[in-house]
Specification:
By secondary structure, this protein is α/β, with parallel strands linked by helices. The chain contains 7 helices and 9 strands. It is about 40% helix and about 20% strand.
Length: about 250
Protein backbone atom coordinates (compact mmCIF):
# COMPACT_ATOMS: atom_id res chain seq x y z
CA UNK A 1 0.00 0.00 0.00
CA UNK A 2 1.30 3.45 -0.89
CA UNK A 3 0.79 6.86 0.67
CA UNK A 4 -0.51 9.60 -1.67
CA UNK A 5 1.07 13.02 -1.20
CA UNK A 6 -0.13 16.57 -1.79
CA UNK A 7 2.65 19.05 -2.58
CA UNK A 8 1.65 22.62 -1.74
CA UNK A 9 3.34 25.69 -3.24
CA UNK A 10 2.41 29.26 -2.27
CA UNK A 11 3.00 31.86 -4.97
CA UNK A 12 2.97 35.57 -5.69
CA UNK A 13 4.76 36.91 -8.78
CA UNK A 14 7.13 33.94 -9.01
CA UNK A 15 7.31 33.61 -12.82
CA UNK A 16 11.10 33.91 -12.93
CA UNK A 17 11.78 31.00 -10.53
CA UNK A 18 8.72 28.74 -10.61
CA UNK A 19 9.27 26.41 -13.60
CA UNK A 20 12.04 24.18 -12.14
CA UNK A 21 10.20 24.08 -8.81
CA UNK A 22 7.03 22.83 -10.51
CA UNK A 23 8.86 20.33 -12.72
CA UNK A 24 10.47 18.61 -9.73
CA UNK A 25 7.28 18.72 -7.66
CA UNK A 26 5.25 17.15 -10.48
CA UNK A 27 7.48 14.07 -10.41
CA UNK A 28 6.61 13.34 -6.77
CA UNK A 29 3.22 14.86 -6.00
CA UNK A 30 -0.02 12.96 -6.47
CA UNK A 31 -1.49 16.44 -6.16
CA UNK A 32 0.43 19.67 -6.79
CA UNK A 33 -1.68 22.41 -5.22
CA UNK A 34 -0.66 26.00 -5.98
CA UNK A 35 -2.21 28.70 -3.79
CA UNK A 36 -1.65 32.02 -5.52
CA UNK A 37 -2.09 35.49 -4.03
CA UNK A 38 -3.30 37.26 -7.17
CA UNK A 39 -0.01 37.30 -9.06
CA UNK A 40 0.35 40.00 -11.69
CA UNK A 41 2.89 38.17 -13.86
CA UNK A 42 2.82 34.76 -15.60
CA UNK A 43 2.97 32.72 -12.40
CA UNK A 44 -0.41 31.03 -12.88
CA UNK A 45 0.18 30.11 -16.53
CA UNK A 46 3.62 28.68 -15.68
CA UNK A 47 2.12 26.67 -12.83
CA UNK A 48 -0.46 25.22 -15.23
CA UNK A 49 2.16 24.48 -17.88
CA UNK A 50 4.52 22.64 -15.55
CA UNK A 51 2.21 20.34 -13.68
CA UNK A 52 -0.11 22.05 -11.22
CA UNK A 53 -3.00 19.73 -10.44
CA UNK A 54 -5.06 22.54 -8.97
CA UNK A 55 -4.65 26.30 -8.57
CA UNK A 56 -6.51 28.23 -5.90
CA UNK A 57 -6.47 32.03 -5.60
CA UNK A 58 -6.65 33.56 -2.16
CA UNK A 59 -5.84 36.92 -0.56
CA UNK A 60 -2.61 36.76 1.43
CA UNK A 61 -2.70 37.58 5.15
CA UNK A 62 0.56 35.96 6.26
CA UNK A 63 2.46 32.78 5.47
CA UNK A 64 1.14 30.80 8.43
CA UNK A 65 -2.47 31.62 7.58
CA UNK A 66 -1.96 30.74 3.92
CA UNK A 67 -0.25 27.44 4.70
CA UNK A 68 -2.92 26.40 7.20
CA UNK A 69 -5.68 27.21 4.73
CA UNK A 70 -3.90 25.23 2.01
CA UNK A 71 -3.69 22.15 4.23
CA UNK A 72 -7.40 22.30 4.93
CA UNK A 73 -8.03 22.24 1.18
CA UNK A 74 -5.47 19.64 0.13
CA UNK A 75 -6.74 16.46 -1.49
CA UNK A 76 -4.54 14.03 0.44
CA UNK A 77 -3.88 13.46 4.14
CA UNK A 78 -0.09 13.93 3.92
CA UNK A 79 1.33 17.23 2.67
CA UNK A 80 4.74 18.53 1.61
CA UNK A 81 5.39 22.27 1.45
CA UNK A 82 7.84 23.67 -1.08
CA UNK A 83 8.50 27.37 -1.55
CA UNK A 84 8.28 28.75 -5.07
CA UNK A 85 12.06 29.30 -5.16
CA UNK A 86 12.97 25.81 -3.90
CA UNK A 87 13.80 22.78 -6.07
CA UNK A 88 13.91 19.13 -5.00
CA UNK A 89 17.20 17.54 -6.06
CA UNK A 90 17.32 14.03 -7.56
CA UNK A 91 18.30 12.33 -4.31
CA UNK A 92 15.46 14.00 -2.43
CA UNK A 93 12.99 13.06 -5.18
CA UNK A 94 14.09 9.42 -4.82
CA UNK A 95 13.75 9.62 -1.02
CA UNK A 96 10.23 11.00 -1.31
CA UNK A 97 9.25 8.31 -3.79
CA UNK A 98 10.52 5.73 -1.31
CA UNK A 99 8.52 7.45 1.45
CA UNK A 100 5.39 7.24 -0.68
CA UNK A 101 5.89 3.52 -1.26
CA UNK A 102 5.47 2.92 2.48
CA UNK A 103 2.39 3.07 4.70
CA UNK A 104 2.25 5.95 7.19
CA UNK A 105 -0.48 5.59 9.79
CA UNK A 106 0.81 7.76 12.64
CA UNK A 107 -0.51 11.30 12.22
CA UNK A 108 2.03 12.65 14.72
CA UNK A 109 5.01 11.72 12.52
CA UNK A 110 6.88 14.35 10.52
CA UNK A 111 10.00 14.64 8.39
CA UNK A 112 12.59 17.32 7.68
CA UNK A 113 14.36 18.41 4.53
CA UNK A 114 17.92 19.69 4.43
CA UNK A 115 18.22 22.97 2.52
CA UNK A 116 21.16 24.35 0.63
CA UNK A 117 20.94 28.09 -0.03
CA UNK A 118 22.25 29.84 -3.13
CA UNK A 119 23.15 33.48 -2.52
CA UNK A 120 24.81 35.71 -5.12
CA UNK A 121 25.36 32.57 -7.27
CA UNK A 122 27.24 30.89 -4.42
CA UNK A 123 26.20 27.68 -2.66
CA UNK A 124 26.38 28.75 0.98
CA UNK A 125 28.31 26.24 3.09
CA UNK A 126 28.62 28.40 6.22
CA UNK A 127 27.18 31.76 7.40
CA UNK A 128 24.70 30.01 9.71
CA UNK A 129 23.09 28.17 6.80
CA UNK A 130 25.15 25.00 7.02
CA UNK A 131 22.72 23.06 9.21
CA UNK A 132 19.36 24.29 7.91
CA UNK A 133 16.71 21.58 8.25
CA UNK A 134 13.08 22.56 7.72
CA UNK A 135 10.04 20.51 8.75
CA UNK A 136 7.94 20.29 5.60
CA UNK A 137 6.39 16.81 5.40
CA UNK A 138 3.60 15.95 7.84
CA UNK A 139 -0.09 15.14 8.26
CA UNK A 140 -2.43 17.91 7.17
CA UNK A 141 -4.03 18.13 10.63
CA UNK A 142 -0.93 19.94 11.94
CA UNK A 143 -0.94 23.73 12.05
CA UNK A 144 1.66 26.45 11.69
CA UNK A 145 2.14 28.86 14.57
CA UNK A 146 0.31 32.16 14.15
CA UNK A 147 2.97 34.74 13.30
CA UNK A 148 3.85 37.14 10.51
CA UNK A 149 7.24 35.67 9.49
CA UNK A 150 9.33 32.54 10.08
CA UNK A 151 6.22 30.44 10.55
CA UNK A 152 6.93 26.91 11.68
CA UNK A 153 5.51 23.68 12.99
CA UNK A 154 6.43 23.58 16.67
CA UNK A 155 8.20 20.22 16.86
CA UNK A 156 11.80 19.16 17.59
CA UNK A 157 14.11 19.23 14.58
CA UNK A 158 14.10 15.77 12.93
CA UNK A 159 16.74 13.86 11.04
CA UNK A 160 16.35 14.98 7.41
CA UNK A 161 15.47 12.77 4.48
CA UNK A 162 18.37 12.06 2.09
CA UNK A 163 18.98 14.74 -0.51
CA UNK A 164 18.62 18.51 -0.51
CA UNK A 165 16.07 21.19 -1.12
CA UNK A 166 17.86 23.74 -3.29
CA UNK A 167 16.84 27.25 -2.22
CA UNK A 168 17.40 29.98 -4.84
CA UNK A 169 16.41 32.84 -2.58
CA UNK A 170 18.57 35.56 -4.19
CA UNK A 171 17.64 37.16 -7.52
CA UNK A 172 19.58 40.43 -7.34
CA UNK A 173 20.48 42.92 -4.63
CA UNK A 174 17.48 45.17 -5.30
CA UNK A 175 15.01 42.27 -5.07
CA UNK A 176 16.78 40.91 -1.98
CA UNK A 177 16.56 44.27 -0.20
CA UNK A 178 12.89 44.55 -1.08
CA UNK A 179 12.29 41.07 0.33
CA UNK A 180 14.23 41.92 3.50
CA UNK A 181 12.24 45.13 4.00
CA UNK A 182 8.98 43.19 3.66
CA UNK A 183 10.18 40.70 6.26
CA UNK A 184 11.28 43.53 8.54
CA UNK A 185 7.86 45.16 8.35
CA UNK A 186 6.10 41.91 9.23
CA UNK A 187 8.69 40.91 11.82
CA UNK A 188 8.09 44.20 13.63
CA UNK A 189 4.54 43.06 14.37
CA UNK A 190 5.83 39.80 15.84
CA UNK A 191 8.33 41.65 18.07
CA UNK A 192 6.06 44.48 19.22
CA UNK A 193 4.76 42.86 22.40
CA UNK A 194 8.16 41.65 23.61
CA UNK A 195 10.23 44.75 22.81
CA UNK A 196 10.66 47.58 25.29
CA UNK A 197 11.72 51.13 24.48
CA UNK A 198 13.73 51.12 21.27
CA UNK A 199 17.19 52.60 21.65
CA UNK A 200 20.80 52.26 20.54
CA UNK A 201 20.86 48.66 21.75
CA UNK A 202 18.22 47.73 19.17
CA UNK A 203 19.40 49.90 16.25
CA UNK A 204 23.18 49.52 16.64
CA UNK A 205 24.25 46.78 19.06
CA UNK A 206 21.84 44.09 17.88
CA UNK A 207 22.57 44.65 14.15
CA UNK A 208 26.33 44.67 14.83
CA UNK A 209 26.09 41.43 16.77
CA UNK A 210 23.99 39.85 14.01
CA UNK A 211 26.78 40.60 11.52
CA UNK A 212 29.37 39.18 13.94
CA UNK A 213 27.24 36.11 14.52
CA UNK A 214 26.91 35.21 10.83
CA UNK A 215 30.31 36.34 9.58
CA UNK A 216 32.53 35.20 12.47
CA UNK A 217 30.73 32.78 14.80
CA UNK A 218 28.93 30.99 11.94
CA UNK A 219 32.03 31.15 9.71
CA UNK A 220 30.52 33.37 7.03
CA UNK A 221 34.01 34.56 6.05
CA UNK A 222 34.57 31.06 4.58
CA UNK A 223 31.77 31.80 2.10
CA UNK A 224 33.87 34.65 0.70
CA UNK A 225 32.19 37.67 -0.85
CA UNK A 226 28.74 36.05 -0.61
CA UNK A 227 29.25 35.37 3.10
CA UNK A 228 30.20 38.99 3.76
CA UNK A 229 27.18 40.43 1.98
CA UNK A 230 24.83 37.87 3.46
CA UNK A 231 26.03 38.83 6.95
CA UNK A 232 25.59 42.52 6.08
CA UNK A 233 22.05 41.88 4.91
CA UNK A 234 21.18 39.97 8.09
CA UNK A 235 22.40 42.92 10.19
CA UNK A 236 20.50 45.30 7.93
CA UNK A 237 17.33 43.25 8.41
CA UNK A 238 17.57 43.58 12.20
CA UNK A 239 18.08 47.35 11.91
CA UNK A 240 15.09 47.68 9.57
CA UNK A 241 12.93 45.60 11.92
CA UNK A 242 13.29 48.14 14.72
CA UNK A 243 12.87 51.06 12.33
CA UNK A 244 9.60 49.49 11.24
CA UNK A 245 8.62 48.92 14.86
CA UNK A 246 9.18 52.62 15.58
CA UNK A 247 6.88 53.48 12.68
CA UNK A 248 4.30 50.99 13.91
CA UNK A 249 4.25 52.54 17.37
CA UNK A 250 4.04 56.08 16.05
CA UNK A 251 1.27 55.40 13.58
Amino acid sequence: MTTPLSIIILTYNEADVLAPTMQAAAIVGDEVLVVDSYSQDDTVSIAKKYGATRIETRTFKNWADQRNWAMEHSQHQWVLFIDADEVLDEQLIAALQQWKSETHAEKENYWGLRRIHFFMDHAMRFSGLQSDVVVRLFHRTRRYSDCEVHEKINVPKPQPLPGKLQHYTYKNWEAWNKKQRTYAHRSAKDHEARTGTIGVFHTAVKPAFRFFKHYVLRLGFLDGRAGFWYSISMAQGVYWRYCELKKLRHS
